[in-house]
Amino acid sequence: MMGSFQLILVLSLSFSLCLFSSSVSAQLRQNYYANICPNVESIVRNAVQKKFQQTFVTVPGTLRLFFHDCFVQGCDASVIIQSTPNNKAEKDHPDNLSLAGDGFDTVIKAKAAVDAIPSCRNKVSCADILAMATRDVVALSGGPSYAVELGRLDGLSSTAASVNGKLPKETFNLNQLNSLFASHGLSQTDMIALSAAHTLGFSHCNRFSNRIYNFSRQNPVDPTLNPSYATELQQMCPRNVDPRIAVNMDPITPNTFDNVYFKNLQNGKGLFTADQVLFTDPRSRPTVNAWASNSPAFERAFVAAMKKLGRVGVKTGKKGNIRQDCAVLN
């Protein structure tokens, strides 16, 4: 009898541990706001569409903002917080200075549209608005639409120091990329799918100038770069170029979310070392080749990876709140 009691105790303990480990993603669910702010998704989508019609930068700006938010302290909109005299916030860390203002503006405009509905005011988190807006910009630029899990709270702190070492660098090799993504529960497949966000948007010349001018003593130009593409980049980014000059990350279809990113890698046209390594490293090349020839398979993998990314470090209960102003802690 005693033995069976102990077995029941062990089983119930292990069951409660299982429940605990999945409790964060269990908090997130589709239609989370059904009884709180039922039209929230269409309100956000309309605000994002309006912003998209003003400038295409809305798309890569919002998508990148979501990545940079989730990789530091989880998906809690802490990257949107403005610095104060007493606190240097995440957005002012050197790794975040290149985030486009249009990404921040998209979330702030969508939040204003939600809060303009009296029953919705201060009921929807900035973190959830960013997650919805990210889905919407992907769809607006030709990518897949997908159901977003909701129920995140906004983070209670934002410091520049918390960004150190948390974001992938343009120079990373496959081991470094895999290690950073694995720290958030993301696999190599997820990492390759999410890297395809570089099918949209632009980069400043200084982010890749080492590949076209001073790669190594033997090779001033990175030998993994397509030679004609390297010449094009040198023409667009001459030495001592104005630091504000930027080039498209996808030279073929820069305004379309598609699998051309992988075709570019096959042709030596990955802008960053961290892009091209996905093709040059034999461990990741089969995935690149598969998705270069199969757009639906890539889109499915991207949606699965975005869902996993959206669960990273989610704040619930007393660990978060709903900000009245996305840029200011309550």
UniProtKB/TrEMBL annotation:
Record's subcellular location: Secreted
Record-linked Gene3D superfamilies: 1.10.520.10, Peroxidase, domain 2 (1.10.420.10)
Enzyme class: oxidoreductase
Entry keyword Disulfide bond: yes
Residues annotated as domain Plant heme peroxidase family profile: 27-330
Signal peptide: 1-26
Recorded family membership: Belongs to the peroxidase family. Classical plant (class III) peroxidase subfamily. Belongs to the peroxidase family. Ascorbate peroxidase subfamily.
UniProt name for this protein: Peroxidase
